[in-house]
Amino acid sequence: MGDKGGDNHSEVTDFILVGIRVRPEFHSLLFLLFLTVYGMVLLGNLSMIGIIVTDPRLNTPMYFFLGNLSIIDLSYSTVIVPKAMVNILSQKKTISFAGCVAQLFLYALFMVTEAFVLAAMAYDRFIAICSPLLYTVRMSRSLCIQLVAGSYLCGWVSSILQISVTFSMSFCASRVIDHFYCDSNPIEKISCSNIFMNKMVSFSLAVLIILPTIVVIVVSYMYIVSAVLKIRSSEGRKKAFSTCSSHLGVVSLLYGTVSFVYLTPPSNPELRKVASVCYILFTPMLNPLIYSLRNKDVKDAMKKILWKKKVLL
Which residue ranges does the record assign to the G-protein coupled receptors family 1 profile domain (predicted)? Predict the structure, then answer.
């Protein structure tokens, strides 16, 4: 099965995912937690997508990006959680080599894409507040599509590079991955190859992804704050800030949980797994709630749909 000696990864047909280490009597409780939160992820994000698609009033750039954000959240959670739930209750906690490659590729794709989509959303808010009269001209439908397509392209390119260096390693040492999904760091730990190049590629990708997206978000909000402070009425300032508060909440949640994951000491793998659960399950669950609870347009659209259902019944 590839757990003995060998000089290349072609002898490895599958990997074993250790998962989150809990006592056997807690496996059912852990499965129930994953199932409940994943159900809320599905419900929240599918509802958000449905509301945006069906309500003509939400046919704006902001909600176009928000709809794509919900698709991304739903996707990267689905890439990992169903397999993790199966493994929680299974004695054979394996994933095929091809399945591991696909999981890492899709996870990296959606994670990187989300970072760029959030940067595009910050730019959208910048134009809306700093140049409101030119908003519909500058944030055209074609530009919005290009920004989202570019985000996916960046995710696709970075994912190809990541899996190329990760799965070019030799796995003659072990095939046991100390995680509940295929991630580059725990995979590197079971390699008997020199991983210097892998570390350099991962670091370079992180810089090329995080730096420009953070710069766009920070610079956009510097201009937004400056513009809002020039508004004389407190009601006007409150209204302007309210259009950005949901996006800021989502950005803080994303970068906070991702930082928690990757800044957790490697010597504490169980804590890193808990941090990963926060990012993979709780972040996509909370994002729709942040936008629905703090956004008047979304709340009005939800009330309209619920009223229609009430009338039909």
Answer: 44-291
Domains plus CATH for the chain? 14-300 (1.20.1070.10)
C-beta contacts of 168-174 below 8 A and 24+ residues apart: 168/9, 169/9, 169/193, 169/195, 169/198, 170/6, 170/7, 170/8, 170/9, 171/2, 171/6, 171/9, 171/11, 171/12, 172/4, 172/5, 172/6, 172/7, 172/11, 174/3
pTM: 0.90
DSSP secondary structure string for all residues of 186-242: HHHHT--S--HHHHHHHHHHHHHHHHHHHHHHHHHHHHHHHHHHT--SHHHHHHHHH
Q: Which tokens go with 75?
A: 């996707």
pLDDT computed for residue 9 by the predictor: 46
Question: What is each CA distance from 149 to 71, 126, 146, 204, 256, in whole angstroms?
Answer: 14, 20, 5, 22, 25
Give me the mean pLDDT over the 91-102 stretch.
Answer: 94
Q: Show the CA angle centred on residue 95, arms to residues 92 and 96, nearest 5°.
A: 125
Main-chain dihedrals φ then ψ at residue 196, nearest 5 degrees: -60, -45
In whole angstroms, give the CA distance from residue 273 to residue 261: 8
**Cα atoms in the 13 Å half-sphere on the side-chain side of 222:** 6
Residues 8-66: tens digit of each pLDDT: 444 788 999 999 999 988 999 999 999 999 999 999 999 999 999 988 888 999 999 99
Give 156-186 pLDDT, tens digit per residue. Answer: 999 999 999 999 888 876 889 999 999 998 9
Output Rg (C-alpha) for the chain, integer angstroms: 22
Instruction: Please answer whether residues 147 and 246 qualify as being in contact, where contact means their C-beta atoms are separated by less than 8 angstroms.
Output: no
Q: How far apart are CA 113 and CA 214, in angstroms?
A: 14
pLDDT of amino acid 62: 92
